[in-house]
Amino acid sequence: MNYLIKQASILGGEPADVLIADGKIAQLGTIADAGDAQVIDATDLVLLPGLVDTHTHLREPGREDAETVETGSQAAARGGYTAVHAMANSTPVADTAGVVEQVYELGRKAGWVDVRPVGAVTVGLAGKQLSEIGAMADSRAAVKMFSDDGICVFDPLLMRRALEYVKAFDGVIAQHAQEPRLTEGAQMNEGEVSSILGMPGWPAVAEESIIARDVLLAEHVGARLHICHVSTAGSVEIIRWAKARGIQVTAEVTPHHLLLTDEKVRTYDPVFKVNPPLRREEDVMALRAGVADGTIDVIGTDHAPHPSEAKDCEWGAAAMGMTGLETALSIVQHTLVDTGLMGWADVARITSEVPAQIGRVADQGRPIAVGEPANLTLVDPAARWIVDPAAMATKGRNSPFAGMELPGLVRATFFHGHATVLNGQLATPRSINA
Amino acid sequence: MKHLLSTADLTRDEAIAILDIAEEMRESGTRQIKKLPALRGRTVVNLFFEDSTRTRISFEAAAKRLSADVINFSAKGSSVSKGESLKDTAQTLLAIGADAVVIRHPDSGAPARLAATDWIGLPIVNAGDGTHEHPTQALLDAFTLRRQVALREGTSPAGRGLDGLKVAIVGDILHSRVARSNLWLLNTLGAEVTMVAPPTLLPVGAGSWPCTISYDLDEVIAKGVDALMMLRVQGERMNAAYFPNPREYSRYWGLDDARLAELDALGAETLIMHPGPMNRGLEISSAAADSPRSTVLDQVTNGVAVRMASLYMLLSGDLI
After folding, report:
1. Could you name the CATH architecture of A50-359?
2. DSSP codes of every residue in A188-207
3. A3-46+371-426 is classed CATH 2.30.40.10
4. Global pTM?
């Protein structure tokens, strides 16, 4: 099926018609003759390159009760994504070519988005021995991003070696920056609210000290470093300093850290329990400013679905994590676009172009131009909707935005020219033989 | 009052109403027949996920004196050790026919969670949650203070707050649910609070609390206080580097014989309070614990009266 998108605002700019044919952008401008293409009226809609998530937990293999590659990638498509990086903390851990190829194949068969497996830095995420990084890089999954996400690569020597070693494969280490000793038993951000709630605190310095160490290591060995889910004002300062020095560091922020604060924890509702924790209002504002000035490069959802029993309990017993794929673009619009901090071209940069570059994802995050692969997202910025976790494609019901009214609806998603979402609803997956 | 979760939820009028009812309850406890019929036919469940003989039997005595039936559930040997969730345990108790739940839990916020969810819909009394709050302890402390001041003045405690009283809370503030509950209630009742502790045992963020923070117990004593609330300090805390060893802790922050003598030398009427169980020789010396200033046993007696008042107000439905 070919599509003619009529009068879409390209990256929020001038309206134009876009003809999608044979998986590519075939024509751009004013197109009178649609031929047999399905016409989509995109008046007042914004056309973006398909979103690329640097940080997704698809839970398969191992925790198919929480999410599968199928349901997670459906959620991604609903959220306007055409590619996701699937984190390595599955069971078994994605620390061998076999596991990353399994995840890659599951993604291909599902056909909703490009599923790019992330390889574990260390065997079993245990922080002791490097995984077979080369084998994963050379596998069919062509892994470029390596992370022990959920656990910090804490041993400084191991981190140094990992940063050095991935250079041979044009890889990047995505670090979950969390000093383990300073965060033993930690339940929430350490500060005024934790002092009142009587919860073991998670100090900002536990994140910042690891980032400071790692940017210096990256500089020393000349390697690429990516910082997952930056959550504090101090982290933004350190990364800003590192970039000014020319260190090859990129940084990611989650939608929830751009909006929610630790005030939410006063409810003791574990839907707000997440790692890194929700921080203070000052941190939220510093993160937004960091995205606006380019210190923070990308939005990563850290989509972390959990079965209901993992959240329908007391705080201490609850799992950490929130779903995010189906709300990410709305939160980005709400916190960065509607606040005047950036335009839609910037949104394309932080949600698609740079994420694809960091993960070296071919055919994603490309310009909207003739001949480019048609990985595209059509969003209605004027629409408003109320978040209902039960209506989501993800199996996870743990959305911290439940009940909130948010701006921006994904009307259509095109994955290599195939409509995975049409009229705001899941359409069909792309055939594996396409 | 639907639940008793945190003293921060209590208005001054509500707090005074509880204390006033507790006065009546205490008076009834001095009669030959101590039992009141107020909660006959109601069932109170003591849901204890943490060892606490003292608080549990205090609640048990309070409920029984109001003629309620009491079911004691303790985590040890129960299905909780087999991995049953709080939700399932609570719903089981509801199915058995509980009318109110008194809960002690190692997780901060577990009682609030029980109250906020649709799991059971019963009145909840927080009997101590993690390092968060222990509201009935703060109420019994306030009750004891108010009563002692009234006794000294030869007036009635009824209807009054703790206006102008200076109270120092000394010890492991970081891990203390008693300290947090007292902070809010003492403020609500008009007292001035000073928290005294080594910096390691004060939470980051305590600077925002409505109290004075001090690292110097001698200075606080010299300035004059109406009550010293000594908190239990676990000697094992030294293993996490909170202080070098119990002796050094005691030297700087313990109410030892020298500081007791200093109170006497100052001619102060300072009361010595402790929620128990005491670590004699660590945060409090035996001489201090057993001195005429000590209200330790008085606090235990008053605890039953305050818990009777709390259960009565939650279960009888009519407030004040």
Report:
1. Alpha-Beta Barrel (3.20)
2. EE-SHHHHHHT--EE-HHHH
3. yes
4. 0.96
